[in-house]
Structures are given as structure tokens and as C-alpha cells.
Amino acid sequence: MRDAVTSLIKNYDVTGRYFDRNALDRLKSYFETGAARVQATAVINANAAEIVKAAGLRLFDELPELIRPGGNAYTTRRYAACLRDMDYYLRYASYAVVAGDTDVLDERVLEGLRETYNSLGVPIGPTVRGIQIMKDIVQAQLMEAGIAANVVDQAFDYLIRELSEKNL
Ligand SMILES: CCC1=C(C)/C(=C/C2=NC(=C\c3[nH]c(/C=C4\NC(=O)[C@H](C)[C@H]4CC)c(C)c3CCC(=O)O)/C(CCC(=O)O)=C2C)NC1=O
After folding, report:
1. Domain count of the chain?
2. Structural domain of 81
3. How many whole angstroms from its chain centre is CA 129?
4. What is the spatial distance between Cα 19 and Cα 159, in angstroms, rounded to a whole number?
5. Could you tell me if residue 168 is inside a domain?
6. CATH number where 119 lies
């Protein structure tokens, strides 16, 4: 599992190069945003349960068929599984925010997920929507706390993009 620094080291070491201007710019940005990324994670941690709950309510409000008979989140067990998945996405997104890298998402979350979801009939589009709603809620909380909200973009956008693309 890699963070922004170890990813760069890996990429440059493969070809035996010293860091160039581009690498140094990326390192600079990683360190300059460090405090904001840690603060953003603290906000996510402190509000995780509330974020997941609010996002779930909003998602089922927008797409009520999910929790009606025949919907994938219908029955208490599947409703709970859905919210648990949202909690996974939020927690792993918070790790990726700290790491400044999406490798943890590939390794721990996205690997094999599509196959699992397809075999269980878990709909991808609504899952992606749920992640988008969590991103919106987190960003609103960060703005309220005076923390640069864009530090969470990379992590959430990566989850959204990877999940969407793999199922088109
Ligand atoms: C940390 C990495 C990780 C992920 C991501 C993960 C996801 C994951 N979600 C699952 C199920 C599920 N996931 C959902 C989710 C939803 N259904 C909907 O309609 C909504 C759109 C959506 C919520 C937003 C549901 C309902 C199930 C249960 C499906 C079933 O058992 O029929 C399963 C099958 C096994 C189980 O039920 O626990 C896995 C592995 N597990 C992991 O270890």
C-alpha cells in the first residue's frame, strides 16, 4: 500500500532517476496540504456515523425503490449492509485523504468489488450516488470548519470514477 511519497519513490526508482521538477512539485503539494488533510480526516472521524446516516436517508429519499420490495436494500439486513458499505467507503476515503494517494482504495476496496456487486445484484449507479452524497456532506462540513474542502476530492472522485467506469 502506497502513499504519495512512496508512490513517487517507486516511480522514480524504477528508472533510477533523481526526483525532477514535477516530482518535487508533487511532494511540495503533498506537504503543503498535509495539515488540511489531517484536519479533514479528523472532521470525518468525528462525524462518520452521522454522515453515513444522513447520506443513507438522502439516497433512499431520492431513490425510494431501493428500499421497497424488490429493491436491493429492502429488508433490514440488506438496508444495514448498504449503510455498512457506505461506512466502508467513507473510512477508506479518509485513509486515502491522509495518504494523498488512491492506492489503498484499489487494494482494499475496489479489488473484486464489481464481481461481488454483480453477483448480489447490488446496483452500481445508486452506490455511486451514495458516495457522491457523502462527498457533498463532508465538503459542507469542511467548509463550515474552515478547512480546504478540495483535499477530499481525489479520494471520493476516484471511488466514483472507478466504480462507474468499470460497470459501463
Ligand atoms: C472494505 C471493502 C469492502 C466492501 C466495499 C464490501 C462490500 C460488500 N457489500 C456487500 C453486500 C451488500 N451491499 C449492499 C449495498 C447496497 N445496496 C443498495 O441497494 C445500495 C445502492 C447499496 C448501499 C449504498 C447490500 C444491500 C448488500 C447485501 C446484498 C445481499 O446480501 O443480498 C458484500 C457481500 C458480503 C456481505 O454482505 O457482507 C460485500 C463484500 N465488503 C468489503 O469488505
Report:
1. 2
2. 34-163
3. 12
4. 29
5. no
6. 1.10.490.20
Same domain (yes/no): 46, 106 = yes
**Same domain, residue pair 112 and 131:** yes
CA 73 to chain centroid: 20
Point out the ligand 1 atom lying closest to the alpha carbon of residue 71: 19
pTM score: 0.96
Q: For the segment 76-120, what is each residue's pLDDT rounded down to a tens digit?
A: 999 999 999 999 999 999 999 999 999 999 999 999 999 999 999
Cell triple for 20: 525532477
Q: Are 7 and 105 in contact (CB under 8 A)?
A: no
Pocket test for ligand 1, best of 122, 128, 131 (most atoms within 8 A of CB): 122
User: In this predicted model, what pLDDT tens digit does every residue of 30-82 receive, in sequence order?
Assistant: 999 999 999 999 999 999 999 999 999 999 999 999 999 999 999 999 999 99
Is the model's pLDDT at 150 over the cut of 60? Answer: yes
Three-state DSSP class for residue 36:
helix
Please give the distance, rounded to the nearest whole angstrom, from the Cα atom of residue 34 to the centre of ligand 1.
32
Q: Residue 103: what are its φ and ψ, rounded to 5°?
A: -55, -40
Take atom 32 of ligand 1 and give the residue whose Cα is closest: 120
What is the spatial distance between Cα 103 and Cα 7, in angstroms, rounded to a whole number?
9
CA distance 37 to 152: 8
